Every structure is written in C-alpha cells, then in structure tokens.
Amino acid sequence: MRETTATDRREKLRFPIKLDLRFRSDGKGQQFKRGTGFTINMSSSGILFRTDNELNVGHPIQLLINWPELARKNPPLKLIVSGTIVRTAGRDAAMTIETYGLRHNGPDRPDTDALEPRTENGYARRAGALRA
C-alpha cells in the first residue's frame, strides 16, 4: 500500500507523460467545447491535462490522445477516454476515467471520427476493468 500525504490523497499511482490530445466537452444546455492540449500525468483512474481553453467541473469530457508509436509500420494509435471533469485550475483539468478504448487511424480511417469510444467492435472498456 502506498503512503499518502495531506496534499496527495490519490489512491492510484500517477505517471508523468506528455501526449498531444483533442477534447470535446459538453454541459447541460451548453454547446460543445472542443480544443486541443496535452496530458500532464495519467493513472488507471484519471488524467491531468492542459487545454487551450478553460473547462467546467462536473461536465462530461472525451479525450482523443495520440498514443506513442511502437513501430513505424503500424498505423497510429489513439486512446479514447471518456469521463467527468473533477477539478480545474486555469487551463489545467483533472478528469475521471469512466470508459476507454484504442483505435487505429490508418488511410481507411481518418482522424476526423467522432470522439466516441466504440463498443460495437468490443474495444471500449469500462475503467473498472483497469482497476480490477
């Protein structure tokens, strides 16, 4: 079990990683906010990221994260994450991970698809499976 301090009570270990992302957030009666940013750190239960504009706590959000390439011959991977914004500080936002999935973006699959985890092909998962 990991010790926590008064300023850091997170149960999951966070890993510093900077990856480019796109996001879409919507709230009750408001239009979608879309933009770009990058991750600051990630755990199995949440992501801290910085965006090009401020977001609202409590709103649902979807991230499309450019995942590092393992080999140049493979199409680029995207990590698609959905959750809720739980904390903000200026342009930094923290979110829960509620669902996640991976997607390949090859020539037959442009990077302009909706930011939705795809469940019909079985690769979107509930985040609880990560924590099990």
Which descriptors apply to this entry?
132 residues, mainly beta, Pnp Oxidase, Chain A, 6-stranded antiparallel barrel, 3% helix
Protein architecture, described:
The two termini are 16 Å apart. The protein is built from one helix and nine strands. The protein has a six-stranded antiparallel barrel with strand order 2-3-4-7-6-5. It has a single domain, classed as Pnp Oxidase, Chain A, CATH 2.30.110. It is globular, with a radius of gyration of 15 Å. A hairpin with a 3-residue loop joins strand 3 (33-42) and strand 4. The model is unreliable at 1-6 and 112-123 (pLDDT under 50). It is mainly β and 132 residues long.
Beta fraction: 35-45%
Structural domains: how many: 1
Report the major sheet: 6 strands, antiparallel, barrel
Distance between the termini: 16 Å
Any idea of the CATH topology?
A: Pnp Oxidase, Chain A
Task: Please give the number of β-strands.
Answer: 9
What is the annotated CATH architecture?
Answer: Roll
Summarize the helix and strand pattern as letters.
Answer: EEEEEEEEEH
Spatial extent as radius of gyration: 15 Å
**Side-by-side strand order of the widest sheet:** 2-3-4-7-6-5
Structural class: mainly beta
Count of separate DSSP helical elements: 1
Percentage of residues in helical conformation: under 10%
Q: Low-confidence segments, ≥5 residues, pLDDT <50?
A: 1-6, 112-123
Task: Give the mean pLDDT.
Answer: 79
The name of the CATH superfamily reads: Electron Transport, Fmn-binding Protein, Chain A
Shape estimate: globular
